[in-house]
Amino acid sequence: MPSNSSDKLDRAVAQARAARDDREKGYREKALKLYPWVCGRCGREFERKNISQLTVHHRDHNHDNNPSDGSNWELLCLYCHDNEHSRYLDASYGDVIPDKQKSAATHNPFEKLAEMMKGDKDN
Question: What average pLDDT does the segment 26-35 reach?
């Protein structure tokens, strides 16, 4: 028989999931009414039979920022949505270097090309 703490945890998890589902249901329904059923990244089109694969992405990554005009939402397919969040996570870990910190490339693969071509003409 499960312990009381396990039951409490199960109830808390169930309540949290239900609250998330309720919150998502509100902005998801609005977003599906506002926007065409097309992934904003890859352009894949959706119909009623596969609409569950079209997700609402929060542009600022704040799931509580849901303006009624939909300005913080975009519809993305499951794959593009996962990719977007992976890119966001990578950036938060510092794997992405901001443009202002990038340095110009110093290697020139064609540096000796003219010299090499001159040598071919001599032969």
Answer: 89
